[in-house]
Amino acid sequence: MKKLLSMTLALAMVLTLLAGCGGGGNNQSGGQNNNQNNQSQQENNNTPDDTNTPEDTNEPASDVTIQVAALASGYEETYPGMWQEVCDAFTAQTGIKVELIVDKMLEDVIGPSMQGGDFPDVIHLAVGREKGLTEQFIKDRNLVDLTSVLSMTVPGESAKVGDKIAGGFTDTSVTNPYGDESSATYLAPMFYSPCGLFYNTAMFKSDDKTDEENAELYDLPTTWDEMWELAESLPEGTYLFTYPTTGYFDAFLYALMYSVGGPEFYNKALRYEEGIWDTPEAQECFDIIEKLASYTNPVTPAQANDQDFTQNQQLVLDNKALFMPNGTWIVGEMAEAPRADGFAWGMTALPAAKAGGNGASYCWMEQAWIPAGAPNQEAAKQFVAFLYSDTACDIFAKGGAIQPVLGVAENMEGDNKMFYSIYDNGADAAMGNFAACKPEAGLRSIREVFLDPVNGLVNGSVTKDQWISDIKAASDQMRANIMG
């Protein structure tokens, strides 16, 4: 009961406090939840022997109803009802009923009930959101260990979940947030997206345009020096850059650190190594972001929030900003938005730090997880396993949501074929997040320390030196509290 009370009190602050440092999780639940789990196992006719464990069986559980809460992202807008169709297919396969919640502001919908101790069984909500709900669960150790799901048979198939997921996707600091302390997977890798700089191809030269057409267009920059030259040549009213919210700078910063410093610098930075922010590589990253801020459309910070972010994305559609960091979901998210004549989406990796070097693209992925307070955890694990079925992958793909499942992207066409070939065109792939930290009073979130100050750089309320000083101070505390 003390654990339940503690968990409830902590969650009461979820909607008002940002997460600290990507935080932790917990595979412990109270006695009532364990009793409910046991009941679910009996209803599934699962026995604790080696031949019929919950991980290896997919027996129907007709009397169980699980609640699934999923973010209504741009994918859902592209193919409305995507999540409901997956839930219906899961019920048809297993007999387990699903009560579905889908909302753009999912935290506001499920937060109040969770404060009262009523948790969904499965939540699809990635790290990096403004409210930091997923980070809060990680930090407070309120997640169920999903490692056993990797050895489960996908409902309706003969393959194991772990055999279907592409290599590397369950070995990241996002899915396994506790570092060396535990190699366990607590967040299941979901829709993945190469992230990069999105732009209007009609504004840039290309091989499929005539020489006469190309003469009036810009060269696509491949280095940051070329990027600055382009910025200086733009007419009044057109800016080099914008961003939806500062949260989108996570993928940008990761790719930038990787392209500037390579994997050694990148991995040290992700663990806040002492002195890392004084290195030439770190200083180059800070200089690039500061200069980019000076070429950013000035209306961006005022619109950089979860309510108005599409107005910043609209700047690219209206040719008022040339580039913005984003992921492949942008196509569906802005499908009905007005746009300049001839507009067509393009995506490029972040420019190389120097001529002849490689650019980089962060591989961003969403996550699904089970709260420690979920009442039907074994049935919830079956649902997570089903998310990697061929059936679910085919449904998600209709909305442009691509699962990290082997072979799922082979038959892509159109925009997705272009987006997912970015690594074939010479870009380095960056994966992983800043290391998770133990809960500590005063410990701030990654977004608050590293990303949100970009708004201040753009509007002039924060200087680069202030930002760096704050990062150093916060990193000292983060390094002292790394999990593992």
Could you walk me through the main structural features you see in this protein, from its secondary elements to its overall organization?
This protein is α/β, with parallel strands linked by helices and 484 residues long. The chain contains 20 helices and ten strands. The protein has helices at residues 2-11, 31-43, 74-78, 82-94, 106-115, 133-139, 161-164, 211-214, 224-233, 249-270, 280-294, 300-303, 309-317, 330-333, 377-386, 390-398, 414-419, 446-451, 453-459, 464-480, and strands spanning 65-71, 97-103, 122-124, 188-194, 196-200, 239-241, 321-326, 345-348, 360-369, 428-430. The strands form two sheets. Strands 1, 2, 3, 4, 9 and 10 form a six-stranded mixed β-sheet that branches. It has a four-stranded mixed β-sheet with strand order 6-7-5-8. The chain is globular and about 65 Å long. The two termini are 28 Å apart.
Keywords:
484 residues; alpha/beta; six-stranded mixed β-sheet; four-stranded mixed β-sheet; 38% helix; disordered N terminus
Task: Give the percentage of residues in beta strands.
Answer: 5-15%
Largest sheet data: 6 strands, mixed
Structure summary, number of beta strands: 10
Radius of gyration: 23 Å
> How would you describe the shape?
globular
Number of helices: 20
Helix and strand run: HHEHHEHEHHEEHHEHHHHEHEEHHHEHHH
How far apart the termini lie comes to: 28 Å
**Backbone structural class:** alpha/beta
Return the average pLDDT rounded to an integer: 86
Low-confidence stretches: 1-58
Q: Helical amount among residues, as a percent range? A: 25-40%
